[in-house]
Amino acid sequence: MPGWESFEGLINHERIQLVEEGAVPDAADAATAEAHRRRQAGADEFEVWGAFKDVPRRKDFAFDEPSDLAGIRARCKAAPSTLPAFTPTDDLLQDRMHGAWLGRCAGCALGKPVEGFMGRHNGMLSWQRQKKYLTSINNSEWPLRDYYPQHSPAETETGSAGCPASTREQIAFMETDDDIRYTVLGQVILDGYGRDFTSSHVAHAWFDKLGYQQVCTAETQAYRNMVMRCDQFRNWSLLQDSAHAAELDATTDWTFVTHHLNPYREWIGAQIRIDSYGYAAAGNPELAAEFAWRDARISHVKNGLYGAMFCAAMIAAAFATDDPTAIVEAGLAQIPATSRLYTEVRQTIEICRRHDDAFDKFEQVIGDLYAILDHYHPVHTNNNAAICAAAVLLAKGDFHKGITFAVMGGWDTDCNGATVGSIVGAMTGAKRAPTQWTARLHDTLRSGIIDYHPIAISECAKRAAEIWKRVQGRAS
After folding, report:
1. Which residue among 80, 151, 210, 258 has its CA within the 20 to 30 Å range from the CA of 216?
2. Phi, psi for residue 456 in degrees, rounded to 5
3. How far apart are alpha carbons 260 and 420 in whole angstroms?
4. Cα dist. 76→175, 278, 284, 336, 339 in Å?
């Protein structure tokens, strides 16, 4: 079994991925044809995937995109941090953590029913499908004002809403979702291993807490590859010893894990896994980005890593400042200035400025983003990270505007709603978060993870605050 989809589908996606990484298109086409030929001839998976080895890169490819942490940091655009120190009282810390957790849950739930609208359909772009769905009910439904209604007169044109437990008519808790399971899993890792956790600890947590059917795309392929080659990650006694865990990190063939049958290695999966690292490093974007890298590297490379680091750093910065530009800049400071993601987020900032960073011009902003980024798959890292950055800039700390823009922007709606929810929730805090969005969750998370199913969202926030103190060396 190839994993997430058919072998033929993986081969075709690999061709797209190689070209995005700078491969010569004709050479990528030839490698793809050869991979299909080998597959049809009955070759094993290693011989088939070997057709993609050493595909030449374009000489005019303008980007330099390492995956190792030292290489990433060497290509960051150094700038002195302007963030104020985050020195909260216990009450403020708890309120901000609670706000971040509520924001992630509310933003995720808001986007879940229309996650299936991510692609083009009946001539409509992702965000246009949402607009059609809502305005066919009533023009007052756009821009988004509430959780998604379960039905619309336009369903035959737009497609139907999914996830009824997250719709306006039924929502009563945060239902299980990969965007939430990984937030819980990050907390479990940090609670168990502290700030010195390793990538091997992350891999073990997957094996211990996540079923194979609970993961998607790049995570499915990496999970499969680790099972094939890395049984040692399941050896609890090895991982309890920090020296052994570090040795596993150093000796594991991460290139195999992230590349073999994995054309999704720059998709959004790593970006949705990092919120708890941003919480644990609140006020310290550089540490948040490093935590995110340790997690992301087990399944992603290049821009897949950078999206995780960018968003973790923004979340950490949101605890220290209410300046949206400073938050986005704090994220950009942690990724290579030589990367596609850095370039495209800079373009996003300029688009927002061109429209006066005005929320009431959100359609123009979204339209301009689609003009430059809709060539990516709807669940790629770069286009969705751009939506998150634009949402932060246009919302200016407003909880409602942040999560609604992130979802109205389309593509991977629940992922973006959740990420931006963490940011605006951390900025706002639970006490000032709109009850329109938070009260209907009834402080309940059904995560699908043992010891967190069900659990009070406020309890997750309490645990996050204690983890932050331990990371800071302030545990009582």
Report:
1. 151
2. -70, 135
3. 32
4. 38, 19, 16, 4, 10
Token digits for 57?
A: 């890169």
Q: Which residues contact 448 (CB under 8 A, 6 or more apart)?
A: 176, 181, 214
Output the CA torsion 7→13→15→17 (10° steps).
-140
Contacts (Cβ under 8 Å, ≥6 apart) of 328: 314, 345, 349, 389, 392, 393
Residue that is written with structure tokens 């399941």 in the block: 234
User: Where residue 90 falls among pLDDT bands split at 50, 70, 90?
Assistant: very high
Rounded to a whole number, what is the largest CA-CA distance in the chain? Answer: 66
pTM, to two decimals? 0.97
Listed residue (102, 106, 119, 116) closest to 168, CA to CA: 106
User: How far is Cα 324 from Cα 391, in angstroms, rounded to an integer?
Assistant: 9
* Amino acid type, 204: H
Distance CA 225, CA 222 (A): 5
> What is the phi/psi pair of residue 20, to 5°?
-65, -30
Based on its alpha-carbon atoms, the radius of gyration of the chain, rounded to whole angstroms, reads: 21
Question: Domains of the chain (ranges plus CATH)?
Answer: 7-52 (no CATH), 84-114+174-472 (1.10.4080.10)
Q: Are 404 and 110 in contact (CB under 8 A)?
A: yes
On whether the CB atoms of residues 318 and 327 are closer than 8 A, the answer is yes
Which residues pair with residue 445 across a beta bridge?
A: 174, 455
DSSP string, 121-163: BTTB-HHHHHHHHHHTT-GGG-S--SSPPS--TTHHHH-----
Rounded Cα–Cα distance for residues 252 and 149 (Å)? 47
- Which one, of 406, 352, 341, lies nearest residue 126 by Cα? 406
Can you say how many angstroms the Cα of residue 358 is from the centroid of all Cα atoms in its chain? 25
89: left (phi over 0), alpha (psi -120 to 50) or beta: beta
Residues with Cβ within 8 Å of 321's Cβ and at least 6 positions away in sequence, in order, are: 83, 84, 327
Peptide bond into 378 cis (omega under 30): no
Asked if residue 1 has pLDDT above 70, the reply is no
> How many whole angstroms separate alpha carbon 93 and alpha carbon 325?
22
DSSP reduced 3-state for 57: strand
Structure tokens at 215: 């993961």
Tens-place pLDDT, residues 247-260: 888 888 999 999 99
